[in-house]
Amino acid sequence: MTLTAQARWSGALVLATLALAGCSSVSRGSLEAVRLAVHGESVHPTAASVASTPYYQMQADGPDGGAVLILASTDGGRLGWYGSGKDIVFTRDGLVVKTVGLSQDLESSTFIGDDPFHAGLQKLAGPRDAQRRLDWTPGYRYGLVAHSHLEPRGIEQVDILGTVHALRRVDETLTLTDAGTTLHNRYWIDPADGFIWKSRQYVAPGLPLELTQLRPYRVATP
Question: Against a cut of 0.85, is the pTM above it?
């Protein structure tokens, strides 16, 4: 996957090994059907190609290309989605909380106080405000406080691998007053349990990722 010229998500898929705490072991040979984009290209997975491997899969598209990522670690609710080389996208409750290997990396994203993603975005009856603390590299941009304004929208029909899902759209505006930055994120959630099937999230200024669950990893909610 080529998110920028310096962050290539191409070539053979490299997954986490048993040396990584909390990681599942995945055989490289059994993943030949999962194709990554060559430099600058996009990927077009099908229901058949996703079904041909037994692993949880997510499509990630960036400014310069895309790839199919494989879930290789689950650690206390944080999921590690691995591409080629050392490129990783970590999510929690569908929200990107860390990246590795990009030209700009999200080192950390945590809520100050209540976390509406963990509580479930399906519970939003109207707009809600929260605060996030963000760390970005390079540039030593640590401890930035962002005002998060979440606003539920209507139901939209979203096609994923030929199956149409009726999903509620939730828009998020992140305002970082001290940095003079405003970011606009969007999430498409299952209205029953808040599971995020698709999203468009800025992992750093100027670096959006569009994430689509192809074979989702879903944990039953209470």
Answer: no
